[in-house]
Amino acid sequence: MDGIEVRYDEKYGHGLYATRDFEKGEIVLSEKPLIVVHTLSTKRDRAFSCTFDVDLGVFSKFKTFFDASPEVQNAILNNFYLPPQDQFETAWSIIGSTYIDRIIKICIKRVEAWVNIPEETFRKVYMIFTLNSHSFDCDGSAIFAFGSKMNHSCEANTFYQSIDGQLGVHTAVKRILKGEQITTDYLGKDSILSKGARRKILQRTKLFTCECPRCTERMDVSRGLPCPNCNTSKSHRRMNGGYIYQYPILSTNENKASNYWLCDMCNSRFEENSPRLHGLFVREKDLENQIIALEEKLNIIPFVDHSHLIELYNACIAQLGTRHWTYIIILKFLILFDASNGKYQSKNAIIQNLDQVLNWYDKHGFDTPRYLSVFVLRVASVLIHAGEYAYGLHFLECVFEDFEYDNTFVQDYKDASDLMSKCRSVLEQASSLQDNVVSNQIHMDPLKIV
């Protein structure tokens, strides 16, 4: 494969490394998948799933794998990451559990072609798909010969995109030098979460604790909490003081706490285990769990009660303030709710909330064009439809002006460019019309205008 090679590293295992330099926006890797799993839709498969109470997503992984050629099966079983044998049972208790074991037993018993396949093979197949696959097309997942060997970093130098249900494409988000490891981000939109929330997801879904520089060496910008010393406001609507942020202690001294907190206004310092932070952490965990549960629900049922969103919004402001990732997620939910329901009477709220979201991403160094291009295009389209051409153009320009990912987000970039041209044309016509009106007024009564 041009520009990349697979290498083994004692710390990271197999990974991809650059054999030449890549520039930001350049496609580093584009490949067809070895195997693709889609949610099965045939009547026969659905009947099997319903009859024996088998999760269709799990069954589809097994069916797709065992329907593949022996060459593909061997390539998948022998070339991708699995936990070492002495750690497999522990890993299985996290990833698989008795629920998947029950499905495996039903499949072996009821599918004639699978009767002689060992349970261990089913476990390996499920584990490989869970730990090595990428999302693909609208509802699928895929394993790639090269892309599935990329290691994770919370500040990865590439991002992944499924293109037209045909290719998996990895695009450089910064300059990559020859010899540098090529990394990807397993978290996608969840990359804006705090270190603890990111690690919890990766431990549950990928079985590792991330040790990238963002997790071990950086201030946690996604987790600003109101300072107990200088936030003295009696109003729960807005904080009037500073925010504390978590900093790592770069020391191997085990007697020290692993992190400390520092206020950006009064410089108060708190250790991680400070009693003054305990109640704040409890409230934070409760709100995080509520928002994560809501996000998971929306992935299945795209409907939410607006009053519930407002309750969470108010709770975030009152308890955590406006510099925590939960607040940004809630703002995005509110924006999408108003935009999706055509609530043009709420367009001022959409504009204000979207401006806050874009400013937060930009301030903290998140790659706005990558993370928010689809989101902003959708919301800007609604604003333009509501006649807000200036605001629609402003938000599109924030993301798509000097856009560096036009080779990856091809259709989105084209749609955004067309909308920006439309907005500029309408605004120019309106400006020209206004100039003509003023000119006519001056001609008719110059003293009155003066």
UniProtKB/TrEMBL annotation:
Membrane-spanning parts: none
UniProt entry tagged with the keyword Methyltransferase: yes
InterPro entries according to UniProt: SET_dom, SET_dom_sf, TPR-like_helical_dom_sf
Key words of the record: Methyltransferase, S-adenosyl-L-methionine, Transferase
Taxonomic superkingdom: Eukaryota
GO MF annotation terms: histone H4K20 methyltransferase activity
Annotated SUPFAM superfamilies: SET domain (SSF82199)
Name of protein: Histone-lysine N-methyltransferase SET5
